Amino acid sequence: MDDMLSPSYLPGDYNQLPELPGVYRYYSKDGILIYVGKAKNLRKRVGSYFNKNAGINQKTRRMVREIQKIEITIVNSEFDALLLENNLIKKAQPKYNVLLKDDKTYPYLLLTNEPFPRIYPTRRVIPSKGTYFGPFASVKAMNNVLDLILSLFTIRTCKLDLSEEKIRTSNYKVCLEYHLGNCKGPCEGLQDETSYLKDIDQARNILKGNLSFAKNFFKESMQTAAAALDFENAQLYKEKYDLLEKYQAKSLVINPNVDSLDVFSIVSEEKYAFVNYLRIKNGAITLSKTVEIKKKLDEADQELLLTAIIRLRDQFQSDAKEVLVNLDYEESPEGLQLILPKIGDKRKLVDLSLKNALYYKKEKALLAGEVKNKKNRVLLQLQKDLSLEDLPYHIECFDNSNIQGSNPVASMVCFKDGKPSKKDYRHYHIKSVVGPNDFASMEEVVYRRYKRILQEEKALPNLVVIDGGKGQLSSAVAALKSLDIYKKVPIIGIAKRLEEIYFPGDNYPIFIDKKSESLRLIQRIRDEAHRFAITFHRNLRSKGALGSQLTSIEGIGEHTAHKLLKHFKSLKNIQQASLADLSQQVGKDKATKIFSMYHPKKNSSH
After folding, report:
1. According to the model, what pLDDT value does residue 605 have?
2. Among 1.10.472.10, 3.50.50.60, 3.40.50.720, 3.40.1440.10, what is the CATH number of 11-99?
3. Where does the pLDDT of residue 574 fall: very low under 50, low under 70, confident under 90, or very high at 90 and above?
């Protein structure tokens, strides 16, 4: 049997992730785990790191540049993701999870074992005090659970000793919580412990994730009250039932006193099997791993699963005696107890493991066929429409922008696999052309681009698109010919007016169906090149306008204006700057002239 491989994703494949809650893990080129995160929607959350730059700080950009591999684990809810994220971070201490590197303890909810038990948050686990539920990676998530319980049940929040003797002998008085209806006053003997413990039992079920018990209780109570024409209480029970309906955090983590155990599940197909492994320590998921096994001799699933169990337990040094599985074994190996649970929390864990195994089985099928075909469909159509020898995986598009003849610039955008590759975008200042000349400008930038590509021995694109008609296309062709790469790189022009596609040397354009996906891709690339050029041009004109205001001051040249704008970032900041700050940048004489310009009524010595 081949070595088992963990299914993973490249950073550019984030759009193949499921739109499900889960935990994602980023690895560097050395296979080191550098970041663990949680998500309500894995595809959207992971995609947010790669499809935008705005709003992402420098440190996050640095992390994104390091990411070489992504692994995920699907869970049932965002709440489960919080718990799994917490355990993975505490175990691996990834370098970019800086907020969790101080080894702080995480919060639990404690259900005390005193008379009239309480439920409250704590960071210290002392088993003799009661039952702990957690840990919670987020205080907010923990408070959501606690708020839900306190809104559903009348559970005391005071710290009084409510033993029978104390209630009888102490002069306890009900507090504000009683008058608000949040407590029934057991301190004064107004509620017996038996009825109080009914609420505690329901709260315990919610803490374990078993919402159905509490929902059934409120539903039956609502129906009983309605049958007795007690509509006020029926409405109260209905509101609590609705609140539970909306609450979606169904945690599989039971409590830290549960024995450690391993959970394995297998799904199989003709040539491959997929095995998921969940490791449970002190009631919490501390590891999730899905592996692929290539069949060699048509082995039975029981045999494959047992092989995976032995290998993975050895790899991760597991010593758990109890192993939950999704297959029935008549006989367990010596020293190992293989159990197929039918109901309860352990069955939920097996179902979650199976959910992850099934997802990877589905993912392999998609990657092998459907996704690949879908991804390449537009590029294959474009290859056919333009009669290209190679699939146009790598496309580059050029556009000029020289509005009113000022600041002539050009841009090049790059699409790979039908998607923008923004790290390969380039801006160009026109150097050799005087005045507005689109044709000469196009020749210059195309020449500069591919001369550099050749010098750096990088791959040429599969298609070059020129934003313009026959004139701009001819100029670009001239650049390719001078570099002796014409006909080695397919090149076309797209005319704006009728969206016509021109080939070099053809008098007449070719027409692609206006509804064609391939034409829409070319248009999208052209529009992106235009946007990129216009933005660059607008920024240059803005800087030029600001600079011209400064250079209108006698004795202030372009160099000084540029230096001030670079330091102060805007004209407004320059206007508001002190004389001392200006002097530090350009010297006292020039600073005095600028300061006097914007503060005519003030003495320059101020």
Report:
1. 43
2. 3.40.1440.10
3. confident
